Each structure stands twice: as structure tokens, then as C-alpha cells.
Amino acid sequence: MKAKNGQHVVGLDIGTTKISCVVADVMDDGRIHIIGLGETPSRGLRKGVVVNLNATVEAVKNCLQQAELMAGIDIETAVVGIAGGHIRSFNSRGVVAVSGRDRTVTQEDIDRVMEAARAVNIPNDREILHVLPQEYVLDDQGSISSPMGMTGSRLEANVHIITAASTSVQNLVTCVNRAGVEVQDTVLEQLASSESVLTDDERELGVALIDIGGGTTDLAIFERGSKWHTSVLPVGGDHFSNDLAVGLRTPVPEAEKLKIRFGCALSSQVREDETIEVPTVGGRKPRLLSRQVMAEILQPRAEEIFNLLLKEITTAGFERVLNAGIVLTGGGSLLPGMVEVAEQVFDLPVRHGLPTGADGLVEPASGPEFATVIGLALYGAHHASSTTGARLRLRPGFVGAFNDRLRSWFSEVF
Fold first, then answer.
1. Across 264-282, average pLDDT
2. Could you say which of 74, 287, 387, 394 has the lowest number of CB atoms within 10 Å?
3. Domains and CATH numbers, the chain
């Protein structure tokens, strides 16, 4: 399968704990071929929101430089993910009369009804990120996915509107711009993750996507092929590390290392005779502790997160529509035992969501922690035309090498 002529896309995920970037060619079949990948520790963010502009700019620059070096190109634009506790969503409806004489629905009618649906009052300090169509109703016929060309007199549209704090979005855009890159589009991270980890069957049957990041846990509910609910919990993987730091009386960086190497969210999966060496503070000697003690600290936090999500799902009225179960993704879902704890809390089938729809340099980016950044690249590939695709230019060294090869080829042929 060949790449589209000169069309590339760049996904940039600026998270609380890490920043990742993917550079990819857009293939004819809608998939992406990854040619560059960058990943650096995040600085200057808290719970998905910029709190130190200069630190964030430097971290973004470092990540972009890694991706540029691997891909051999300069990045000019990128699709950037938006997350944080400031995200809000609600459902809305618009109604218009079909304008044509023969009452055939045209694209103009669809545009007008979408505009009517988004004509809602929102506070001045907020802006609309996405208006996602859920279903159309033509006269008395509902559950229409595309009314184009159908006949009727009254067209309605049910939509899901996602808003964000204007200052939070602007600060993130400013960081990317100061790093030398233009923001092609801002995309809600749950929406991006769904592009890479959910199947069409899951979207149709009803599924909850749970993305556990460093500072926040994002929830998105899909049913009948559309998105119906969005929410963000201000709790994430960093809270597991903080709990360990307090419970084991060890520095937070050491607690993070212990969590990655020995952590488990389900104490019953850990043998009682397993021990770990725990660094202490103040220059004291390390202590030997049972690994099960660490699991008993992590399990209540995992149960708390999933119970809060269950309450959110129940309050929103979607507990009976999740026929395809739960999909866990994000770096926080890598903790062993998370799937089993989620199954106990939700009483539903749960699976890990691994990114799909990409090839090329997929091995370094095959885990759930890369679901968002690959989803951002896929979103850019699926929703951007050839005129709005990310603009990238070859580095001078690469141009010279290409010209040398071209001259050599011409001399061989002629």
C-alpha cells in the first residue's frame, strides 16, 4: 500500500508525566506508517494543565527534536491532544426545515442543522472543541446516521458538544507555537485514543473507554457508533506513586520505580513470600518489605478510581448500554491487576486497549501508553484533507543525499 503524495501527519500528546510525538505517512487505505517517534519526560504540567510555560516549551522542543531526528524531517504543524479537569461535555439538539423544493436533504441542510445544534450559550471563558453528531431524525424517522439525499420536511440532529477552558487551550497552543510548531488541530484525548483502540463493533454495541494517564483518568462512552458521554477524573497514575511514597516512606521518584518494577493492583496475585528492597529518606539504609504490602497500598487506589467511574457512568444513565464492556488504555493501565480489579468493580468484560491502525516503527509504540499519540496521528489522517495535512520539509542534509542518489541513478540509466 502506497503513501499519499507527500502527505504526512504529526500527533503530539502533551501529558502530565510524558510528552510523545509521532510522525507518520498517510497511506491510501487510511492507515498510517510511522517514520518518527519522540518521547521525553513532561515538565510544567499538572493534571493536564500548563502551570509552567517555559518548562513545558523546553520539554516539547526536546520531544519534537527526537521525532525529527528519527524521521529526517522538520515538523511544521501537529495535531495536539487536549485533556484536563477543565473538559466539560453535554448533548444538544438542532432542528431546521429542509430547504429544497423537492424536500431532498442536501449538505447545506446538514450544515444548517449542525449549526443550530451548536448554537448554545456557553460561558465566555470556555470554547467548543468538538461538535460530534450522534444521530439524525428526519420527520418521524430516527437513528439515521447520514440523511444526505433522503426526503423529508423537518431535519433534527442530536450532537455531543465538548468544551474546554479557553485559557488552558491557549496556554497549550502557546507552548507548541513557542516550540516552533503550528497547531493544525486540537483534539480531545479520549477521542484520539478511541481512534486507535476501539473497534467498530464496540462503538456500535456500547463501550466505555477509560484512559488512565499520569494526572487524570479520562472516560468516553460510545453507543450506536457515536459518542454520548465524556468526563475527566482528576486522579491518575501519579496518585499510585504518591500513595506508595507515603505508605512505604520512600521518595516519590523511588516509589515510581518500585511501582513500575514490582507494582500490582491486586494483592491476591502476589505471593506472600516475595520481598522487595525499599529505599528510604534521609540517607538511611534500605528496608526489606513484603511485595504484598505494596499491593495492599495500590489496590484501594485502583478500586477508588473504578468506583468513581462506575458512579459517573451510573449517574449519566449508561450502565445498561455497555454491551461490549470496558476498554482500558493509557500508561496507568499497565499496572498488573488493573484489568482484574476493573472486572470486579464493573462486573463487565474488560480488555487492554492497544493502538492499531499503524505500521512502520510500531514496536516502540505498541503499548497502551501510546494509544493517544497514535490516535492523534490517525485523527489527523482521517479528518484532514490534503491541503490541511501537516506540512513537513526535508532537512538540507537529506535533500543533498537524495539529489546525489538521483544523479547516480540518471548516470546509470543514461
1. 88
2. 387
3. 88-164 (3.30.1490.110), 237-301 (3.30.420.40)
- Helix, strand or coil, per DSSP, at residue 74: strand
Decide: residue 348, CB within 10 A, 0-12 exposed, 13-18 middle, 19+ buried.
middle
Confidence check: pLDDT of 5 > 50: no
Q: How many Å apart are CA 4 and CA 372, to the nearest integer? A: 23
The C-alpha atoms of residue 299 and residue 92 are separated, in whole angstroms, by 38
Cα 119 to chain centroid distance, Å, stands at: 27
Q: How far apart are the C-alpha atoms of 357 and 194, rounded to whole Å? A: 11
Q: Which residue has the higher pLDDT, 385 or 53?
A: 53
How many CA atoms are closer than 13 Å to the CA of 353, on its beta-carbon side? 32
Cβ-based burial of 119 (10 A; exposed 0-12, middle 13-18, buried ≥19): exposed
DSSP lists the bridge partners of residue 81 as 187
pLDDT band at 85 (very low <50, low <70, confident <90, very high): confident
Pairing state between β 358-360 and 32-41: parallel
The Cα 71–Cα 59 span in angstroms is 19
Of the candidates 185, 192, 223, the one whose C-alpha atom is nearest the C-alpha of residue 325 is 223
Q: Report CA 379 to chain centroid distance, whole Å.
A: 10
The answer to whether the Cα torsion of 47, 49, 52, 54 is positive or negative is positive
